[in-house]
Input
Amino acid sequence: MSIFNKTVDLDAAIADVHDESVLMFGGFGGVGSPPSLIEAILESGVKELTVICNDAGFPEIGIGPLIVHKRVKRLIASHIGSNPVAGKQMTDGMLEVEFSPQGTLAERIRAGGAGLGGILTDIGIDNKTVCENKDTVMLDGRPYLIEKALKADFAFVSAHVADEFGNLTYDKTARNMNPLMAAAAKRTFAEAVTIVPTGELDSEHIVTPGVFVEGVVQSEGVKWKWAWE
Amino acid sequence: MGLGIEEREQIARRAAREVASGMIVNLGIGIPSLVPNFLPADTEVMLQAENGVLGIGGSPERGKEDELLCNAAGYPVSAVKGASYFDSGLSFAMIRKGLIDITILGALQVSRTGDLANWLVPGKKVPGMGGAMELAQGAKKVVVVMSHTDQKGRPKLVDSCSLPLTAAGCVDLIITEKAVLSIEDGKFVLKELLNDSAIEDVIRTTDAEVILDEYFS
Output
């Protein structure tokens, strides 16, 4: 495959995802989650997944269906309140959830994509759950938690316009964790609303350089109904 | 008892007075989201939402929503002139760095030393902290808007929080349906009474010492 044409179909993008894969999904309450890739992964039947996402989506929105259909054994997220099924599975011991404060989660993913081992932060230092099993270091007289970088086997991100080299732009608040995750996985596939020939995107407008992206998939669009609708 | 719409609006109206021109503002879910309705039209602020926008405008007309332009609660919003979009990393960079002048958020408990508990009731709902810890620790001013007591009538302003902390010593001002209280030197200071409530009632429903502001003496 030419690096100047990374366009692939949905099946190819998810072909190597298997049981127990570690997957990152962009999105914040489903906004900026890649709908077609999520649906394809759901249909593929893979299970026992570890999923890293800002939140658990809603039962029928974002990554929510992956949880509802019991494909996820471990979730690393900042919030699951909008998906009651995730809360119930966690209470029932079916879903392991690691909560990370949202900005810390973002920075851990960024670190994973930047070749760093982790970050130092004082966020959550007053909270036992956040501090649990983490080392603390003193720096200039102040305590900081060591928060480990997050990486994944695959990142599935949602882009607005992609070019065939894999350069990506995003659309308003659908950006959220997507650019951070695009860099943080061994293999990144982007679902885009529009795919254009390489050279058509203004280089100043590109948010994710194509070097981070293995494949670009044409989105089939959002099929879920938004919670506010 | 949950608060009625009038009490919620009254709290939001009072909270709006804490917002001044020039401020960068982050609003939580619930009562805080009502605050913009009570800002004078000439107030020049930029509203930030942690999902990646600085410069939120009013709610769009029905049918004109853009599903990819939402606030942190997931509701469609509009953008003002000069608005910008950014990823979650940069969004929390501005929060942790202290570029948010004021955040207005809800709470389960606030202690007299300004400890905030607003993310978890053990054994019950575990929604996750979202971005609350960064906002509580990072914002220059933290204003809590909440009911004065919980659904069983138990005080939410307490000597020390029994619920897991979001952040310690971060709250500056609390606005309830009964009163406005600041936190000064480890004590609740009653600044104003709201809704015709009595000083005695505020003291009775607060589980810590309440100092009366000089206005009352």
The mean pLDDT of chain B is 95.
